[in-house]
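pasting input
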Amino acid sequence: MSAADREVILEANDLTREFDGVTVLDRFNFKLHKGEVLGLLGANGAGKTTAMNMLLGLTTPTSGAIRAFGMDFVKHRLEVLKRANFSSAYTSLPSNLLVWQNLTVFAKIYGVPNVKQKITELLELFEIADLRKRVTGQLSAGESTRLNLCKALLNDPELLLLDEPTASLDPDIADKVRKTIRKVQKERGISILYTSHLMKDIEEVCDRVIFLHKGKIVAEGTPEEIVKKSDAASLEEVFIKIARSGEVEAAPASN
Amino acid sequence: MNPRIVSALVLRYLYLYGRTPMRLVELIFWPIVELLIWGYLGMYLQEHAGSKVPTIVGHLLGGIILWDVIFRAQQGVAISFLEDVWTRNLLNVFVAPVRNMEYLTATFIIGFFRILVTVTMLSVISFSSFQFNVFEMNWAIVPFFGNLLVTGWALGMISTALILRWGQAAESLAWAVPFFIQPFTAVVYPVKQITPVWVQWLSLALPSTHVFEGMREVLSEHTFNWSHFYWACGLNVVFLGVAGWIFSSTLNATRKRGLLTKFATQ
Ligand SMILES: Nc1ncnc2c1ncn2[C@@H]1O[C@H](COP(=O)(O)OP(=O)(O)OP(=O)(O)O)[C@@H](O)[C@H]1O
Ligand SMILES: [Mg+2]
């Protein structure tokens, strides 16, 4: 079954956001299918986080519509959020609580049935079981990134939005986290929207990617397709090309 | 409203207070200082003015203790919100299926706990040091307490809205907001002392003024003034409604400006 036939979990229609007259995201359209990992790529400031914030209801779109699980997102925000979750390396859980306390609070918010068991399971999954009794604010950046991921999986989400979930991880842990995310995602058929600046992440985790440049989609497809189409050696090369010229096709050698 | 979510949010604050008992110091230290100052002043005035003002200590201490109900309730709401800002947790809460009302209710409950701590302690000290027993107010203390609690919640929502609107730079407002109304709400003096006279109308438009007026009547004449009670309740309904509206429309405006995430992650 091809991706296009599968159920659409999240979609944006002409999603647009302006800040002070500047269009940061311009008529953004995409469909995220069930069990698919969609990567959102682009240079700093391309509009990835803005798109994600709108998809989470944190920022109101200037125009356009969002549908999740077949529902209008604005009207059914709470129902959608119950079945979704979010993690970013740039947010954190309350620094003054212990790791287990933070996870317990969010488990209760999401109505997780076996709180203790779930927490143990997730901490073990990300290999941070020994941090259970530590103060959250004292965790290293990489440890707290993994804790955020535990929080994001508490409610067994069907939809996950991950904004640079692997930022600040060392190569070894980044590799483990990527594999863990991929494994859990495959087992449970989770749909994920994923941003990252690590091309390795994207190649390994994403089924399909969208390249954004200054708020516009400039390329879309599987990582291999995009590399092939732009006549580049790697996804990294494509990224740099797009970031500098805004185009996928090889720019004419002018100088 | 889902009680499970409210209790989860309350639990978060209980863990917090359990982990950092230093936070409780502010619930105890300043109120005691204030109580002592007004208590001593009252004793001094009473000695010098003699029988003309026999109940002055009671009026001052009763006013100060009840004022703390407003202040603590307001702080419960505003500080709880700020805790989420300080710890960069706001985003996690906003992407969870939490209704505004559930979030606010949790902060209301925290405000209530904070008041219990402060008021219990102040009552004990005022009785032991100044022989003023808050229960001289009898059962009237319940409606007084209840009304001030609601006024405090309303002020808390307004403070939170100001912080949402102006960001963390407006943090000091979290402490300041109740003091905007303090001079006019007749805490330690009757409304008729307030000048110019037209400001008295403003005073009487605050629900809390009717509580403080009512308290003085109970203490000196032992009568519960129902008219003040009804005014306090009625005005509180209006206050709470307006404050709730201000809070939710500011929250929406913050979403529209795309700033919710900005100060949640900064
Ligand atoms: N609240 C805001 N007010 C004004 N401009 C904003 C606001 N939020 C984002 N922007 C601007 O929108 C643009 C897109 O930002 P966004 O955070 O979406 O980029 P990004 O693709 O996530 O970048 P990065 O890779 O650096 O995380 C940037 O130019 C940013 O300055
Ligand atoms: Mg970003």
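fyi The CA atoms of residues 85 and 264 of chain B lie 6 Å apart.
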